[in-house]
Amino acid sequence: FFFPQVLLLACAEDLECVPGFQQKVFYIEKPFEFREDRLILNLKFDDCQGNNKLNFEVSNPDFRVELDGNLVALKNVSEVGRALFVHARSEHAEDMAEIFILEANEKRGALKEILKLEGNLGIPRQKRAILATPILIPENQRPPFPRLVGKVIRSEGTEGVKFRLSGKGVDQDPKGIFRINEMNGDVSVTRTLDREAIANYELEVEVVDMNGKTLDGPVRLDVSVIDQNDNRPMFKEGPYVGHVMEGSATGTTVMRMAAFDADDAGTDNALLRYNILRQTPTKPSPNMFYIDPEKGDIVTVVSPALLDRETMESPKYELVIEAKDMGGMDVGLTGTATATILIDDKNDHAPEFTKKEFQATVKEGVTGVIVNLTVGDRDDPATGAWRAVYSIINGNPGQSFEIHTNPQTNEGMLSVVKPLDYEISAFHTLLIKVENEDPLIPDITYGPSSTATVQITVEDVNEGPVFHPNPMAVTKQENIPVGSVVLTVNATDPDTLQHQTIRYSVYKDPAGWLEINPTNGTVGTTAVLDRESPFVHNNVYTALFLAIDSGNPPATGTGTLHITLEDVNDNVPSLYPTLAKVCDDAKDLRVVVLGASDKDLHPNTDPFKFELSKQSGPEKLWRINRLNNTHAQVILLQNLKKANYNIPISVTDSGKPPLTNTTELRLQVCTCKKSKMDCSASDALHISLTLILLSLLSLFCKSFA
């Protein structure tokens, strides 16, 4: 079904002969099937010079156009696509016709769409002053150039007028591809065209007078470049790597190969077909895979038994894939790429120990790796189907052993993590199991070879004596008499099967206060214990002792003794500060606040008792007031002259018996002017002599009396 009354570009009575198809666009309704040799439609081609050497080409090889213009199918065809293109070429002209195939439900709207698009298609609905029919030019034409490709017709004649052509390809980049004969409207191309660079040109043509004034137009002139098969298929998305699990069912899709062809996708020039040219390696079958010629899907074609990774020469196959255009016809261009297919491993082999029993020897008291257990596994070493996981399933009640996997060798590293005791057990037997990180496939199980026995022999070594308890603790008063017994230490030899004697010695005694009997371990004092010593920390003195057995060589054990020292009142209190200053005209006669401290501990320290020694002279010059348990204040009873005074003050602690310390407080009476204090002792001698005279006078009076 077509509509010639709408689609005719021009009627014979309106226009002179125009070379090419008399109708360039057709719309037909798609039948259920195009029947072989049945007329579809008739195409009229006229080169206006007798159609000498006329030849037709159809874009679909299932159709042909006979010399009389009849379009027929070469066989029964049900799938065609949306359009057919017919290229006609004679000795003097060539042209292209388009046949659009509509579904049945598209027919009603086709006429309206055609009328809407007639400007785009270059199809006139009425007689025009300028007729510019679309021009179709094959790409890759050879010289000579320029080459006549079309003609623009003016219905009112060409006398006294000129044709003017413009647009991309004429006066816009790329410039100079097309040109028009100003006098007769012949359109020429000046060089070879490349459809893949520019597929369509939209030009404009107009008619002007000799002064350049536009008379008709502009009218659109469409130039379409006809595709030639000048581009090979290309694989652009490589590298192409696919994976398939070993044992996969026949027909399992591995990967898809997709090539690209720069030619017109609507023609056979870009219709690709795929093929496997070569497979490497060729075993166990030279045809392990098949590629869908249209989709490019690669699938397996061998049985699951042949797809066994462990029996293959290599788990990697390389396929050389060919893509050919023109639907795979011999004339098609080709491109190739390599597809790499990796056969992935699945856990179809259980790990097996290389022997049923392993031997190990370890010295008592030692930790670390004692033996490496070896296994074999035929699966892929790079996967969890090969990596081993070991476990101790019997013989390890005390958790003295652990086993871990060496990630490089896959061996099981059996270690002692708790020191073994020869005297408790000289032999150990472990049962070890090995599995994979990944689970086995359902029809494979772990067998007897996945377990092994490890026989461990413990070697006896001479162990050092052990103190009981360790550390040892005792409490003593400081200042106990030299030669006092502190305690008796006790050490035993773990080597119960060996009969050895033990001797003791002092290892570390920071203050040099202690000694030990080498035979019975009695610890005594060699000096006075002093809680206030710098070697005592937090009332505790620490010393270390050695216990040495009679083995060959002898073994040594170390014991720690902590002596907590109880305080006794053996330190007198001290007074601070011992120097004070006051102005001779001071109004505030509170001279200084005194504090007392004691190295001993409570209750041998505060509260302290502060007292002034007896003052000499006719009148008292100062007094002392207690402020709290640790402080007192010295107060002048009157202003004194500038001098230095020594005030004896006694401080007594609360110990039983109490200890007293007398300290002289040096009091400097200074002159103070303008916030400056002058404490030079120029009058000190005078004051001292005065005190001396007063004292002598007092003695004289007493003796006289």
TrEMBL record:
Keyword Heme: no
TM annotation in the entry: none
Location of the Cadherin domain: 161-235, 236-353, 354-467, 468-575, 574-685
Subcellular location, record wording: Cell membrane; Cytoplasm
Keyword line: Calcium, Cell adhesion, Cell membrane, Cleavage on pair of basic residues, Cytoplasm, Glycoprotein, GPI-anchor, Lipoprotein, Membrane, Metal-binding, Repeat, Signal
GO molecular function, one term: calcium ion binding
GO cellular component: adherens junction; catenin complex; cell surface; cytoplasm; side of membrane
PROSITE patterns: CADHERIN_1, CADHERIN_2
Phosphoprotein recorded as keyword: no
GO biological process, one term: calcium-dependent cell-cell adhesion via plasma membrane cell adhesion molecules
Predominant location: membrane
Pfam families: Cadherin (PF00028), Cadherin_pro (PF08758)
Membrane topology: Lipid-anchor; GPI-anchor
Quaternary structure and interacting proteins, as annotated: By contrast to classical cadherins, homodimerization in trans is not mediated by cadherin EC1 domain strand-swapping, but instead through a homophilic adhesive interface which joins two elongated EC1-EC2 domains through a region near their Ca2+-binding sites to form a tetrahedral, X-like shape.
Its biological purpose: Cadherins are calcium-dependent cell adhesion proteins. They preferentially interact with themselves in a homophilic manner in connecting cells; cadherins may thus contribute to the sorting of heterogeneous cell types. May act as a negative regulator of neural cell growth.
Entries under PANTHER family matching the protein: CADHERIN-13, CADHERIN-23
Name of the protein in its database record: Cadherin-13
Organism name: Calcarius ornatus (Chestnut-collared longspur)
This protein's encoding gene: Cdh13
